[in-house]
Design goal:
Elements: E1 4-8, E2 15-19, E3 24-27, H1 34-44, H2 64-71
Antiparallel strand pairs: 1-2, 2-3
């Protein structure tokens, strides 16, 4: 199973690392190098890169779906 996911949100320059095992999300510090730098360069030019992700939605914290996730079972 994938343990880390790299995220970039449309309209934001920063990239984020979500560590699924640790349950943390942290900003990736620049300067980037290697394949991550190449991917960030493509992203900056408007290319959308998806690999190994079969579902993702960006939503504001005010949207109903996101709000329900944080409410828990009660």
């Amino acid at each position: 199973m994938t343990q880390v996911v790299i995220l970039g949100i449309s309209g934001e320059a920063a990239l984020w690392q979500a560590d699924l095992k640790a349950g943390t999300i942290t900003a990736i510090q620049e300067p980037l190098s290697g394949e991550l730098a190449n991917a960030a360069s493509l992203r900056a030019s408007g290319v959308t890169i998806t690999k190994g992700v079969d579902f993702a939605i960006a939503a504001s914290a005010d949207s109903t779906g996101v709000h329900g996730v944080h409410e828990g079972d009660g």
